[in-house]
Amino acid sequence: MSSPTDHDSAPQPAPASLDATQRVAPSRTEPLVAAASAPIGGPLGEHAAVGRHWFWTPQRVGLALATLALMLCWFGKGSCIQQYTDESGQNQLDWRAGRPYVAMCYSDIVPLYSREQLDQPGTFPYRTSWVDNAGTANAQVRYMEYPVLTGYFQWANAKLTTIWKTVSDAGWLPGALPVAIYFNITAFWLSAAWLVTVWAVGRTAGRRPWDAALAAISPLVLVHAFTNFDAIATAFAATGLLAWARRKPVLAGVLLGLGAAAKLYPLFLLGPLFLLCLRAGKFRYWARTAATTLVIWLAVNLPIALVYNTGWREFFRLNGERPMDPDSVYNVISYFTGWTGFDGPLRPGQTPTWLNLVSGGLFLLCCAGIAYLALAAPVRPRVAQLSFLVVAAFLLTNKVWSPQYSLWLVPLAVLAIPRWRLLLGWMLVDALVWVPRMFFYLGVDHKGLPEDWFLGFVVVRDLAVVGLCVLVIREILRPERDKVRLSGDDDPAGGVLDGARDVFVLKPAKEPVPA
What is the spatial distance between Cα 377 and Cα 382, in angstroms, rounded to a whole number? Predict the structure, then answer.
């Protein structure tokens, strides 16, 4: 390793022919978009008046497309909030005959409404407890299992459901089962969160605002926008990156801190920012962001941790005790090899120590490799590139990859690898994993699919993500192939890093990187 140096490596390859104000038109640069534009006149002409329409800006087009995708997602999940009248004349949620799996409409939001005691009056997350498997040897006291901000979100929606139900009973609003009302209220706020995500991606993309359409129309949004509550975290993560891009490190810390209080993954973004700030000599900017992130996370968590400590620790306890997920790489290995070395079947309360060590160790090993890449690459990597690699490494090595976790990658992938065909191909493959997953859960006895089919799709999904990581690494090592830099930009999401000179590298270049 070399000592710190004032080496002035070239911050970017030579710009392409675009001037500083020109936008990238995907219909010119992406064959898929060019072909899709044929029914409306083909690719944008050289003399087209760009940016002059009074309303339909790229941002508004992206938000309109996202709204359409969210509507389709709601219709896809709507089958799971249908109701029927039972023999006693009571309205019930219609989950008969495996409807959530056959109709592929399953959403965690629906069962969590009653399982987390949100349908009961006077309950409060982290204070209210219940007993799973009561009366058995596996009985266990449980609390709200989500991070604090997500727990607040669920509780607030439950209270809004109670208000809606009261008003609807008075005849002023349409009525339905409380769980259906709860789902719709939750879906409304999750839709707003995803729209914020798309907006932030478009703002962060610089001269490539049309790339936000990839996040807007992602097949993963069609399937998983309402599968769980992850759109809240993506909104905070995306706006945190936007604040960093706008050179507002404190605001970035506020947003990342709130995101970490909703789902821990936005905290991972501090790692790439640290490495890039170290390389560029901008450590004090990172320190402000990191300190603010910690303060905000503590401000959200400390009141609950101090008052309801047992309930607050439930999220961490369950993550420690959780066995390997059906679509984790560890389950794939165990299933196809018959090896049970990942601690095998566990009883409630047992911790898969070996699995936790292997999972954590592999992630740290990947992070070490990413750190070396960040500090040794011929040109400083872009923020989105390293952020994508870190989050993808976490998902690939983690013992849990819940299907909605793939939403975490969407905004980062759009900013890191704006290659439309590749990204849409990966998103489609990842979204299609939902089909064999649902029919695997249905069970072979009920005309479902065997586990082999499901795990086969999981392997293809994992290979697709690995392929994207390889492409990102290749473009980091050969930045002249990076589409963002070919447009003439250095790092649109870089903020203070954009165009900055290196002050610390592991492999100082002896000559400028060729274009």
Answer: 11
Around Cβ 100, how many Cβ atoms within 10 Å?
20
Domain layout of the chain by residue ranges: 56-83+92-497
Tokens of 497: 């890093």
Encode 22-50: b = buried (16+ Cβ within 10 Å), e = exposed: ebbbbbebbebbbeebeeeeebbeeeeee
Region for residue 452 given its phi and psi (left: phi exceeds 0; alpha: psi -120 to 50; beta: otherwise): alpha
CA of residue 252 relative to chain centroid, distance: 17
Rounded CA gap, 313 and 458, in Å?
31
Share of the chain residues as helix, strand and coil, in percent rounded to the nearest 5:
60, 0, 35
Cβ 104 vs Cβ 438: under 8 Å:
yes
Bridge-partner residues for 130, per DSSP? 142
CB atoms within 10 A of CB 307: 11
Place of tokens 């914020």: 196
Reading the chain (515 residues) residue by residue, the pLDDT tens digits are 443 344 344 433 434 444 445 666 665 566 666 556 556 545 555 545 555 555 678 889 899 999 999 999 999 999 999 998 888 888 899 999 899 999 999 999 999 999 999 999 999 999 999 998 887 877 889 999 999 999 999 999 999 999 999 999 999 999 899 999 999 999 999 999 999 999 999 999 988 888 999 999 999 999 999 999 999 999 999 999 999 999 999 999 999 999 999 999 999 999 999 999 999 999 999 999 999 999 999 999 999 999 999 999 999 999 999 999 998 999 999 998 888 777 777 666 678 889 999 999 999 999 999 999 999 999 999 999 999 999 999 999 999 999 999 999 999 999 999 999 999 999 999 999 999 999 999 998 888 999 999 999 999 999 999 999 999 999 999 999 999 998 888 999 999 999 999 998 987 655 545 54
Q: Would residue 27 be called left, alpha or beta, if left means φ above 0 and alpha means ψ between -120 and 50 degrees?
A: alpha
Please give the Cα distance from 276 to 272 (Å, whole number): 6
Helix (DSSP H) and strand (DSSP E) numbers for the chain:
23, 4
Our measurement of the distance from residue 5's CA atom to the centroid of its chain's CA atoms, rounded to an integer in Å, reads: 37
